[in-house]
């Protein structure tokens, strides 16, 4: 059945091509829409069209505007759990369905169709997926199933947009009123019409007529105009790839990962996750001072200035800094003072990076579901570029004042001013509002150009506030104010307590005075607050111990990141046994409601996330007895572990889990901080092991995403803690069996940390560190994995490959070759050996042959390994960057063989493959840019050579780990400048690169023996040459 379905793709393609040819409709854009399994017909038709070279098929692709896939399954994994749902799709309209399972052959056919479509397509795709379950009947019973959810519908195409529809699968196609869908149709048809016009031999009058039609084109019946919100970077048109050289290959200039000022931003744009406080009171003078600083002449936010204005709100926690900033943001939104307002949590540098990157996504400078959206360097570049030149649309004149958008950014909780390293200052005609506990934040020599230290309310202001919040103007509130000391957060919290418990002000004073612990608060008066007393006072003000339903939930939240607490983490099914923690949905809602009502937490109005003040967390933890503290920490650790997408040890370089890891990573950092003091006892062994596993795996994720040096301390902490637990075992009263099991778990963690630290060494030019860790990893695996385990356990084979890498980095090429061969020898003893799973030793062995001058053996080995991958995943797959490594290595070997045209082709394929897997700013991508720049230099295409070498230098930047790569790229740029006859620049760059060379090698400069290009190749890792 499913093969017949796919075969109809050819019939659809031929029918469309025949229609275009017979009716001469080459000027008409085509949009193909498919529902459910019909999408496989469309995928096959498009795949076949991209494989054809005849003119008729090229004409068809030229007119193809895009496709809309409604609930079409898509996965390149044979083991995707939802493939069974595809068997239900043909019969969802029927009274019942046959209870059958998908055959493996059927799954392979659909998987292959999905994989081939991924490799072929380059057009705009709108994917619709259902949010409701579909009712299916079986005999006399029925059940509801989520047939094709977002993850099962996502194609992963760079130009894909995904919309979740509030519908079941059957009614998914009823979207004629959905403006997002209509907007997509309008955009792609308009883009296709312009593309056809640019390449069609029509008269001026016809072109003008069609252009007028395009400008007046509208899909909305109510006359509402549609802007063209192009998301993501400009796409390559046919003209970008039209020229073919005499050398027999296509030269495709690759775009720079920097900011494109012609993108059309999504304006107005407001990122304000803090819900407006309807009970906000006072601070009008503060708000006026902020406004006067930003607009000294009283003009609007459209002042034409390239210097961003900045203002800092400083003061201790709970003084109302965030609430003032939020109120100012909401007022500016109402009064349209700014075209764009952004809120960035700033207590950690990673949050600033994520927040700045999210701005580019919300402005639609980058498509949310694109690979670029996962790259923090690209998103940050796009954001900072737009902030510096905030154009409104691509048709305006940048010199006109009205052509630039006005913007406001709030950086909340900048308590450590060093988090701005690498980000500050910001340029552009905008304003920056900062909240910080550090009073230096308002010092122009340190950070903001102005600011103010917030103090508590006066007695009069505090009385007015408590009366307003409790709606009681006929009672004397002075006693309450005296007890709360004019602290805004304390007043807000106690107003909630008074209302909830139906207390008069007098009764509140009596209850307050009954507890001796409240006497400390009397040390804070309305004019002067001691920070230490303030924090202790707040812990009593919040009355956390009086919570009926939400205390356990709040106690767990006290150990997680305060700014972003995903509800799916808090509701995760875990083995936690913390007493009174909400287990059922109704219990969770009851607990959350109590915390929201008492203002102990707030809700992010953009998603299912909770926010809690740091001092509330401090107060909650300060009230815990030691045993309960451990239980609450254990519960928080368990919830994060259950939610974290752990990756089994092996050849791990997939990207599918990165989005979830990015969401949860701040929680790991918090748990690491609290776990530092975790002792080792029989009660805490399990906690220590879980924490070690989490830190190690999170560190590996961070290393994979290009943050190797930042990941190193996380993995080292996991290793040290695991070793500490191992050394403490003899002092604990454990049974022999239990101790043996714990030792096995700890040994596995320690071994994996050695592996991960070795990998970090390979990526950051630390050959000595790499050899130490990989030798230890190999020794541990040789001891643990016996001949029986070798049949199912690949860790020993992996250890030989990694030890080979260490030898290669230390230029011990024959030792490296021996290890790679041993890796493959051990792997072939496995009961289910699949050579495609052992691509790394193949590519590394090929490089060992190359570096020892055995070019034919190198070529044969590399092509053999690449063929195994292509057989399983298809040509130039996007499963992992390893395919790009094969292509890059083959490019290098064919260069050594003098087959320069073939080499260029391999290097171009490697660059495209790296772009689609590890992204445009990974250092391996920079390596390929250097090689391609050399090709263009050889071909005397100097503009293209400069573009690629500048991209490489931008990627390497000033990071210490990549000084060798930067030195090589700088030397190559000097050669390009020399070819341009720019002697002065060439000499300057040459001297800069040579100085770096001698610093890196430790050699003394000798007159007449300056390094050449091949010497710079020796500086970098063997796979980067």
TrEMBL record:
Name the keywords, alphabetized: Coiled coil
Give the Gene Ontology MF terms in alphabetical order: ADP binding
- Here the segments flagged for biased composition (Polar residues) are 225-244
Region described as Disordered: spans on this chain:
224-247
NB-ARC domain span:
305-369
Q: Which residues form a coiled coil?
A: 969-996
Coiled coil as a keyword of this entry, yes or no, is yes
Pfam families the UniProt entry points to: DUF7779, NB-ARC, TPR_12
Keyword Oxidoreductase recorded:
no
Domain named DUF7779: residues: 542-627
Which InterPro entries did the record assign?
Answer: AB_hydrolase_fold, DUF7779, NB-ARC, P-loop_NTPase, TPR-like_helical_dom_sf, TPR_rpt
Q: Identify this protein by name.
A: NB-ARC domain-containing protein
- Give the organism, scientific name: Delitschia confertaspora ATCC 74209
């Amino acid at each position: 059945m499913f093969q017949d379905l796919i075969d109809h793709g050819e019939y659809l393609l031929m029918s469309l091509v025949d229609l275009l040819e017979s009716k001469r409709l080459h000027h008409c854009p085509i949009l193909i829409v498919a529902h459910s399994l019909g999408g496989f017909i469309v995928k096959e038709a498009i795949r076949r069209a991209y494989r054809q070279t005849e003119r008729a098929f090229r004409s068809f692709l030229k007119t193809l505007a895009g496709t809309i896939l409604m609930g079409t399954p898509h996965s390149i994994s044979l083991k995707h759990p939802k493939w069974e749902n595809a068997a239900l799709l043909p019969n969802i309209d029927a009274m019942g369905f046959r209870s059958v399972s998908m055959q493996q052959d059927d799954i392979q056919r659909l998987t292959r169709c999905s994989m081939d479509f991924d490799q072929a397509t380059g057009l705009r795709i709108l994917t619709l997926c259902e949010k409701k379950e579909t009712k299916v009947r079986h005999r006399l019973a029925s059940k509801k199933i989520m047939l094709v959810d977002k993850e099962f519908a996502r194609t992963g195409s760079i130009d894909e947009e995904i919309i979740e529809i509030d519908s079941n699968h059957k009614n998914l196609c009823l979207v004629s009123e959905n403006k997002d869908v209509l907007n997509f149709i309008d955009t792609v048809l308009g883009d296709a019409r312009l593309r056809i016009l640019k390449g069609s031999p029509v008269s001026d009058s016809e072109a003008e007529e069609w252009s007028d039609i395009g400008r007046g084109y509208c899909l909305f019946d109510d006359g509402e105009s549609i802007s063209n919100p192009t998301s993501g970077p400009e796409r390559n048109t046919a003209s970008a790839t039209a020229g073919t050289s005499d050398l027999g290959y296509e030269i495709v200039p690759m775009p720079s990962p920097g900011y494109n000022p012609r993108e059309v931003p999504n304006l107005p744009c407001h990122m304000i996750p803090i819900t407006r406080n309807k009970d906000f009171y006072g601070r009008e003078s503060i708000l006026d001072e902020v406004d006067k600083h930003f607009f000294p002449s009283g003009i609007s936010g459209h002042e034409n200035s390239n210097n961003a204005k900045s203002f800092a709100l400083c003061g201790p926690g709970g003084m109302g800094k965030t609430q003032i900033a939020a109120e100012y943001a909401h007022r500016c939104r109402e009064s349209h003072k700014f075209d764009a307002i952004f809120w960035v949590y700033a207590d950690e540098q990673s949050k600033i990076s994520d927040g700045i990157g999210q701005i580019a996504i919300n402005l639609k400078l980058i498509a949310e579901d694109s690979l670029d959206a996962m790259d923090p360097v690209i998103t940050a570049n796009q954001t900072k570029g737009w902030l510096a030149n905030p154009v409104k649309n691509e048709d305006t004149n940048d010199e006109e004042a009205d052509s630039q958008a006005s913007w406001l950014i709030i950086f909340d909780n900048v308590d450590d001013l060093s988090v701005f390293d690498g980000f500050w200052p910001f340029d552009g005609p905008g304003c920056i509002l900062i909240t910080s506990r550090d009073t230096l934040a308002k010092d122009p020599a340190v950070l903001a150009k102005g600011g103010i230290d917030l103090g508590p309310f006066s007695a009069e202001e505090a009385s007015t506030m408590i009366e307003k919040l409790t709606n009681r103007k006929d009672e004397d509130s002075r006693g309450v104010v005296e007890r709360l000391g004019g602290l805004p957060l304390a007043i807000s919290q106690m107003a909630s307590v008074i209302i909830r418990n139906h207390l008069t002000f007098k009764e509140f004073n009596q209850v307050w005075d009954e507890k001796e612990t409240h006497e400390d608060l009397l040390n804070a008066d309305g004019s002067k607050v001691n920070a230490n007393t303030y924090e202790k006072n707040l812990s009593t003000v919040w009355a956390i111990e009086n919570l009926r339903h939400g205390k356990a939930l709040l106690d767990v939240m006290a150990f997680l990141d305060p700014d972003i607490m995903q509800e799916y983490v808090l509701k995760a099914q875990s083995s936690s046994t913390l007493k009174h923690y909400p287990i059922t949905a109704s219990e969770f809602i009851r607990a959350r409601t109590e915390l929201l009502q008492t203002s102990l937490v707030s809700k992010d109005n953009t998603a299912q996330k909770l926010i809690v003040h740091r001092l509330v967390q401090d107060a909650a933890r300060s009230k815990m007895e030691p045993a309960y503290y451990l239980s609450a920490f254990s519960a928080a650790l368990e919830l994060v572990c259950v939610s974290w997408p752990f990756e089994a040890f092996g050849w791990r370089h997939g990207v599918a889990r990165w989005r979830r890891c990015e969401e949860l990573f701040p929680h790991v950092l918090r748990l690491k901080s609290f776990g530092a003091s975790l002792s080792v006892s029989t009660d805490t062994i399990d906690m220590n092991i879980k924490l070690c596993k989490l830190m190690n795996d999170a560190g590996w994720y961070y290393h994979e995403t290009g943050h190797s040096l930042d990941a190193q301390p996380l993995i080292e902490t996991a290793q040290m803690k695991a070793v500490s637990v191992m050394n403490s075992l003899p002092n604990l009263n454990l049974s022999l069996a239990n101790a043996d099991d714990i030792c096995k778990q700890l040994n596995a963690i320690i071994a994996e940390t050695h592996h991960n630290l070795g990998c970090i060494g390979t990526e950051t030019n630390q050959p000595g560190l790499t050899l130490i860790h990989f030798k230890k990893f190999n020794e541990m695996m040789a001891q643990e994995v016996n001949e029986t385990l070798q049949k199912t356990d690949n860790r020993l084979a992996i250890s030989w490959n990694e030890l080979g890498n260490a030898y290669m980095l230390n230029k011990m090429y024959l030792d490296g070759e021996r290890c790679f061969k041993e890796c493959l020898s051990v792997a072939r003893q496995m009961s289910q050996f699949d050579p495609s799973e052992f691509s790394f030793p193949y590519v590394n062995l090929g490089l060992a042959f190359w570096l020892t001058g055995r070019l034919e053996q190198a070529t044969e080995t590399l092509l053999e390994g690449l063929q195994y991958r292509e057989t399983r995943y298809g040509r130039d797959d996007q499963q992992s960057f390893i395919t790009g490594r094969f292509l890059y290595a083959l490019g290098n070997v064919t260069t050594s063989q003098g087959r320069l045209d073939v080499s260029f082709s391999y290097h171009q394929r490697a660059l495209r493959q790296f772009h689609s897997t590890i992204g445009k700013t990974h250092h391996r991508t920079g390596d390929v840019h250097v090689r391609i720049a050399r090709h263009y230099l050889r071909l005397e295409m100097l503009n293209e050579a400069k573009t690629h070498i500048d991209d490489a230098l931008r990627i390497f930047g000033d990071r210490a780990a990549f000084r060798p790569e930067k030195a090589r790229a700088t030397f190559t740029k000097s050669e390009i400048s020399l070819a341009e006859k720019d002697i002065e620049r060439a000499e300057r760059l040459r001297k800069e690169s040579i100085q770096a060379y001698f610093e890196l090698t430790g050699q003394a400069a000798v007159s007449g023996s300056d390094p050449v290009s091949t010497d710079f190749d020796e500086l970098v890792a063997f796979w980067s040459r």
